Amino acid sequence: MFDTIKHKKLKKWVKDMASLCQxxxxxxxxxxxxxxxxxxxEACSKGEIIRLNKKKLPGCFYHxxxxxxxxxTEHLTFICTKRKxxxxxxxxxxxxxxxxxxxxxIFKGCMQxxxxxxxxxxxxxxxxxFSKIGVELSDSIYVVLNMLIMTHVSKKVLEVLASxxxxxxxxxxxxxxxxxxxxxxxxxxxxxxxxVGSGYGGNVLLGKKCLSLRIASYLARKExxxxxxxxxxxxxxxxxxxxxxTGAFPSACGKTNLAMLVPPKSFMKKNYRIWTVGDDISxxxxxxxxSLWAINPETGFFGVxxxxxxxxxxxxxxxxxxxxxxxxxxxxxxxxVWWEDADGPVPKKGIDWMGRPWKPGMLDDKGKxxxxxxxxxxFTAPISQxxxxxxxxxxxxxxxxxxxxxxxxxxxxAPLVYESFNWQHGVYISxxxxxxxxxxxxxxxxxxxxxxxxxxxxCGYNMADYFRHWLKMGKRMVKQPRIFCVNWFRVDENGKFxxxxxxxxxxxxxxxxxxxxNEVGAVKTPIGYIPKLEDLNTDSxxxxxxxxxxxxxxxxxxxxxxxxxQRIFLATFKNSLPExxxxxxxxxxxxxx
Length: 593
Ligand code: OXD
Ligand code: MN
Prior knowledge:
globular; binds oxalic acid; alpha/beta; 9-stranded mixed sheet; 8-stranded mixed sheet; single chain; Phosphoenolpyruvate Carboxykinase, domain 3
């Protein structure tokens, strides 16, 4: 394959990286089923993956990462630029040449005795004006097999690149998987990503968070589009009309479940249907009609396994029955898999995510129940296998966006849903979004942190400029999507969820779409518009009037406390914060007084 490649810069870069990492062999990945099979066999024989039960889980494999390598390591993730002000107060920064130097010391000779795989991939349909090409070099077959599911990999990628096409240079090595020698480095000024010392998905599938969010957000600002941490879904109503929404939710807040939602029975009767476009990333452009259009640059799901079952996400259960890679779940004696809150009975025994014999109810030295699967264990599966997969997945223009949802996990404070007064107010709500920490990030669970647009760990430049970019994009649109904030996670005095969630969330989305279509009015509150209670469809839901009221309660004193936290957060951006955000802050303060 190498000899037929016309792209001199690509060939030189591969050669240079190989002389740094010193692999025994270089293997170009062409996306063919034959090569994939060969790699699967090789990884199985080396113990990198385990083939699962061929009858019960055809085409499926099992993988365990190192014990200290089970989630994205944000504290080891850097944006590397010449000037620190470029990255703002929410990113870790490293000076470009220091970063290269430090990483080179780890990369040097790290692939001796290993092969270097060259993976040319496209994020987005090949040849679409939305799409970006990357080439990942990696010494992990697990990475190759995941990339084959998550991105468009084929010989055609090199044809599109031709002799001088632009591509993101992605270098990855597991090296010795030593957390003290782990670095996830982004060089937006060089369109380059270097990741070393990890084997965990979010750190090593470089097309995902690193390219499609951190590097892409930087490119998007420069080129006038948006790269966002958002799901994309279509909602088909009784008349067969499909409207699309996107949704920004922090990691492990149910984006995958929402994107594949199965309508409640009463909606099914009305022939409602959901079309899943994506569960994690949305690239959006203003099209010639002046409205916002979105594509999902990925071709697969890298979803959280625990909690996935036929009640929470029947479409995911269906999707992962074949051709799926399971990472850090429990391995059962019959070579099938299990995780906490999976369907069916709890297995009597198995091998846990750390590779140790496991039995239900086992306790650790501190008396805590030992989990069979890591809370951030994952499945990697092709979107095409999802029963609700959209028919527009490969469409070059993507789908038109009617509404943008912002969500988080808040046990208190935030109502079930409210609508922003206008675009600028919506950008303010997104800039002050906060959520409780989940297991997708290293750190203390449950702690509330600000996570604007769910992009805190993913924005490749100063977030103050990111808010400015959003404000600017709004002005450029002829028809702006409306912006809504949702919270499925509010609890009562006893800590019990007030809202049933899952498929029932469609009831909230139905109201959102009615607002977009100017079919219903709303109640104006200091924080935004909330539904008139009679407009929210709660038919056949066991939901008392009292609960409904609690779901929409706006406690002014709690909001004033939140406002103070917001002020402290926004102040971290100093002079770079757009004045419009402060203006919205002051207006809210006034409305609450
Ligand atoms: C993810 C994440 O894996 O956000 O999608 O961590
Ligand atoms: Mn995500």
